[in-house]
């Protein structure tokens, strides 16, 4: 297991240091490397990306379920509103999350993510794979995601890209956990505050929310993103 | 140079003891109750909770304080790794029977009797 951890870390570091970065809106969810058996969830995510030239709004609705003790599968429908104000179906995605080690067993927790996306009405495909990592420090947790992305199809130049996401959160109370988030992608280096919360209903039903306000800091142009994710687990 | 040093540092962190033997504590879930409902554990150490679900239905161990969620299958022993914990009380409950299946882990500083 130690050997695997070292290999995974090396790949993660190389991903972070690579010079190819991913297209599109980089700000999105920071994934945690955990899966619960019997977990089913309905998810809604929205990212509003404001630049000097206009606003892009991306939304996705997903439905997912654990398929065994360590893996969960989720399907998404993605919609986007472009700078011209046109909102429409943008793509479809299927995602597999895999918890690689029992939480707390090793020095840090590891998981993996695999995604396949097809753009609507265009011959564009995107496959993503990467590592999910989390380390607990008392009441704080540091989560990092490193992804390698391959885009291909008749309507796009085939290329490899990478993305990196990080979230440091303080588990103050279940309803309010302040966080600091970092997103790195193509021509994008954004940081900003956020918060995460959770409300339990009866049994396994619970509502999770994540909010982030990310500002791009590597360039002088206006570039802000607001992200909201709601997950209803049942 | 700096990049290599930071890589080396992270490598060392990963090579540091990963599978230190953890002290084990046994919990029983029976009739939707945890026995014992209070567990005293040493602070600042990695620990292993062995939970045996003797009920005929699954339960989900949940604790925001311990930052753990785990499904406890019926007639099976589940392992939950916790800690190192600061001294204090850490509540947990069963999501399917939150009114009855409740307990608390109490982490205390271990004092040396020779002192």
UniProtKB/TrEMBL annotation, chain B:
<dbReference type="InterPro" id="IPR008972">
    <property type="entry name" value="Cupredoxin"/>
</dbReference>
<protein>
    <recommendedName>
        <fullName>EfeO-type cupredoxin-like domain-containing protein</fullName>
    </recommendedName>
</protein>
<dbReference type="Pfam" id="PF13473">
    <property type="entry name" value="Cupredoxin_1"/>
</dbReference>
<feature type="domain" description="EfeO-type cupredoxin-like">
    <location>
        <begin position="21"/>
        <end position="107"/>
    </location>
</feature>
<dbReference type="InterPro" id="IPR028096">
    <property type="entry name" value="EfeO_Cupredoxin"/>
</dbReference>
């Amino acid at each position: 297991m130690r050997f695997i951890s070292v290999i995974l870390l090396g790949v993660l570091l190389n991903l972070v240091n690579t010079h190819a970065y991913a297209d599109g809106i980089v700000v999105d969810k920071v994934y945690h490397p955990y899966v619960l058996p019997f977990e089913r969830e309905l998810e809604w995510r929205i990212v509003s990306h404001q630049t000097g030239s206009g606003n892009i709004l991306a939304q996705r609705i997903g439905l997912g379920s654990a398929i065994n003790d360590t893996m969960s599968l989720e399907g998404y429908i993605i919609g986007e509103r472009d700078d011209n104000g046109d909102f429409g179906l943008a793509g479809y995605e299927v995602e597999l999350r895999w918890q690689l080690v029992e939480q707390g067993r090793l020095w840090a927790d590891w998981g993996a993510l695999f995604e396949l996306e097809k753009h609507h009405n265009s011959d564009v495909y995107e496959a993503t794979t990467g590592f999910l990592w989390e380390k607990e420090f008392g009441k704080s947790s540091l989560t990092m995601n490193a992804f390698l992305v391959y885009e291909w199809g008749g309507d796009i130049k085939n290329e490899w890209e990478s993305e990196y996401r990080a979230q440091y959160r303080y588990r103050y109370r279940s309803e309010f956990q302040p966080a600091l988030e970092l997103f790195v992608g193509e021509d994008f280096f954004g940081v900003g505050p956020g918060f995460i919360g959770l409300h339990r209903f009866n049994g396994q039903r619970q509502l999770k929310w994540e909010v982030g306000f990310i500002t791009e800091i590597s360039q002088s142009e206006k570039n802000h993103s607001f992200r909201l994710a709601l997950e209803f687990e049942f | 140079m700096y990049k290599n040093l930071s890589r080396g540092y992270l490598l060392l962190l990963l090579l540091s003891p990963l599978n230190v033997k953890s002290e084990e504590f046994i919990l029983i879930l029976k009739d939707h109750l945890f026995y014992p409902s209070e567990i005293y554990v040493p602070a600042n150490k990695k620990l292993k909770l062995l939970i045996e679900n003797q009920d005929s239905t699954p339960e989900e161990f949940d604790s925001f304080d311990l930052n753990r969620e785990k499904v406890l299958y019926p007639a099976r022993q589940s392992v939950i790794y916790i800690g190192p914990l600061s001294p204090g009380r850490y509540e947990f409950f069963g999501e399917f029977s939150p009114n009855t299946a409740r307990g608390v882990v109490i982490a205390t500083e271990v004092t040396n009797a020779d002192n």
